[in-house]
Design brief:
The chain has 13 helices and 15 strands. By secondary structure, it is an alpha/beta fold. Helix 2 crosses helix 9, helix 5 runs parallel beside helix 6 and helix 10 packs parallel to helix 12.
Amino acid sequence: MLTEQMILRIPGPTPVPPRVQLAMQQPMIGHRDPETSDLLKQVGPGLQQLFGTTQQVSIVAGSGTSGLEAAVINTVAPGEKVIVCVTGAFGERFVSICKSYEIDVVVLEEQWGEAVNADRLKKSLLEHSDVTAVFLTYCETSTGVLNPIEKLSSVVHKYSDALVIVDAVSCLGGVETKLDDWGLDIVVTGSQKALMLPGGLMFVAFSERARAKMEANPRPRFYLDLLKYDKASKEFSTPFTPATSLLFGLQEVVQLLAEETIEGVYDRHRLMREMTRRGLEAMNLNLLATDAVASPTVTAFTVPTVEAKQVRKALKEQFGIRIAAGQGHQKDTVLRIGHMGYCTATDVLTVLTALEIVLMDLGHTFSPGAGTVAAQQVFLKKGTGVHV
Ligand SMILES: *Cc1c(COP(=O)(O)O)cnc(C)c1O
């Protein structure tokens, strides 16, 4: 096999489009020069559209987790009580961060593969009337569940004054997000998932309510002080040296998304979700999430007859395709296919077809070709205007 070829179908980092890769090769510019301000000014409206906000979107040099940590330390004082909704590994990460910062955490946990239950959240809010923030994971990457953020946010606002804080790292840019309309207080994301960039940038936007809480919060913070970034963003600047090469790439990403139109981008992700799910089902594989809560960006599944790691190994060795293992207690049983960012129906067909060969080879029984045919049918329906 041509070993140089690497087909990344993991839920981040995701492939970087050639145009973006090229843009990142540009020579360095001064971070206090007008060229950098122009660049920040240019990407601003595109980012605001993705976040669904008229607030400033700040860009921070850091991985996605720096966004989770920033959301916690900027808004929650030591000793305050919060609810963290846990639907998988990334909800657990919010719990760990909160515990590291001496926050009183109420964990509202669901089975992995399920979404946050709005009634349970309501009950928890009524029981703990003193919570100051509720932490939610939009797409739980470990299970492929897309939590119903709009609905959950309305429950939080109806039954409390808590802030709604959302980890949108693995779906913002591939799934509609409306910070303003849905009453979200903080939304964070990272560069290496649906935003088609390498890892290294964190993006964050917040509401006026969140700003007021940040201003009143006595907890010390320095590099991740979001008020610093927000103030600098308003002047098209950054408080510290930005990751300029990634900003060059971001400029191209914003352009690419505009060319496809944002609705087109979201439609493409829904199409890839349906193709992947119907394809996997037709191969007698078990989907972890139900259709009602399935994320357009990542699909988790199990193989009833073959060890998950054998499947991953064969896909990598025979086809150069990387899919991901599960996380936490699902590490050895679950497989995950990332279909976000620089990914199309063509890529989904490739991974499904290769997976069929691998499964046949490993002795899993299903009707040969059924997965590919099921995905093809989803694609064909799209052309007839049937909503997928
Ligand atoms: C990838 C991911 C993160 C963390 O990202 P890092 O860049 O690895 O820090 C956080 N939340 C979710 C939901 C993710 O998918």
